[in-house]
Amino acid sequence: MIINKEQLVKMAQEREQELIKLTSDLIKINSENPIGSQREVIDFVMNYLKESGIEGDEVKANEEFPCILAKMGNDLGPSIILNGHVDVVPAGDPSKWDFDPFGGEVTDKLILGRGTSDMKAGVAGILFAMRLLKESGAEIKGNIRLHIVSDEESGGQFGTKWLIEDGYGDHADACIVAEPTSNYTIEIGQKGSNELILKAYGTPAHGSLGNYKGDNAIIKLSKVLINIGMLHEVKGNYRDDQAQALKNSKYIASNKLDMPGIENVIDHVTASVGTIQGGTKLNMVPDYCEAHVDVRLPVGVDIQELEEKIKSMIEKSGVEGVEYEVEWKNYGNSTPMEAPIVQAIKKNAEELWGIEVLPAYQWASSDARYYREKGIPTIQYGPSNTEGIHSYNENVDIEDVLNANKIYLLSLCDLLGVE
Ligand SMILES: [Zn+2]
Questions:
Q1: Are residues 223 and 153 in the same domain?
Q2: 83 has which bridge partners?
Q3: 256 belongs to a structural domain
Q4: Is residue 285, in this structure, part of any structural domain at all?
Q5: 361 part of a folded domain
């Protein structure tokens, strides 16, 4: 019997309790990062794959942060990567939660707990889609490669970045990262995040003579930092075929963040002073101070223009002895709106939700960029209630979880020739 899409969706519907339980079970495993080991959650996923008849391998750069690679299908068509992280940010003060963050509680409409939205519901959705395809015996033309990582929330050096650098991200035709988005947006691009270091050099003196002697490095740097907003004047550059996605992104930013002018966060550089260190002792005029600035680059930004702006920001302060250091590592990255993966997710999401779904660029960044840097058309789409992410009382709508799973399933069918 040849299994078709309709039958697969029916299976997903009949077995939706399995998906809810899988999400809840994942929540019950505390996988906080930093601090906690990821061993238990990785073993759980490995076992789930085994039960599903899908072959998987554990690979790792660090004993506490293993990754899982699994593959199903053949070489008769496209190769599609599904990516998800199973680590979660710490739950923090338990008294600030209205429920046990690791209880995995399921209500009428919601699944509750740390990591529901970011992103264990997404992980459950891709795992369950693979299981349904495998168990149904649907004939796919091409293959699905699963990348489960356990280090995303704390720098990610043992996660996707490492996987890609170790050669596991080669030759794919599409990649879905099941990170939380709204149901009405598909993330097709992001800003690049970089670290700018500003250093001020002064002359030490005894603190008691502070207003007469010495040259205070903290004061000098403050005069520069007060103009950090100048960097926000630098804009990205977009091709004609990126205009619609840019328009969508600005619409979404104003809609979600609801602050006047916030849409400019998408196509302008942002610069946020994150940390500052200076001085050694109360009674010494400090001769050194440095600040670390989080600089986010939109798509197509001209780095030379930005560097000129940094120099004129320092000049404008009127102080001598301030230098900057930066290694531009991460650029704005994007996937074309016409890519089959974008169109497949858009079509299926629109049909299921009955709403318009907008491909758009995000103001933040994630693991998607590592795949895009490899030339793999990559999108993010996943279930979420954004208000609890990285905060207290994280939760996800059951309807969102069930629909996301079907959208993954149907899009895989479209790309892998299941009619
Ligand atoms: Zn995440």
A1: no
A2: 147, 177
A3: no
A4: yes
A5: yes
Does a structural domain hold residue 239? no
Nearest partner of 383 among 19, 31, 9, 105, judged by Cα: 19
Q: Are 115 and 32 spatial neighbours (Cβ–Cβ below 8 Å)?
A: no
Task: Work out the percent of the chain whose per-residue pLDDT is above 70.
Answer: 100
Residue of 92, 88, 48, 52 whose CA lies nearest to 68: 48
Distance 87 CA to ligand 1 centre (A): 8
Q: Structural domain of residue 196, as residue ranges? A: 192-234+269-326
DSSP-derived letter for residue 76 is: S
Query: How far away, in angstroms, is 350 Cα from ligand 1 center?
Result: 23
Question: pLDDT tens digits, residue range 255-286?
Answer: 988 899 999 999 999 999 999 999 999 999 99
Distance 187 CA to ligand 1 centre (A): 13
**253 C-alpha vs ligand 1 centroid, how far in Å?**
19
Q: Domain count of the chain?
A: 2
CA 118 – ligand 1 centroid, Å: 5
| pLDDT tens column, 172-194 | 999 999 999 999 999 999 999 99
The alpha carbon of 386 and the centre of ligand 1 are apart by a number of angstroms equal to 11
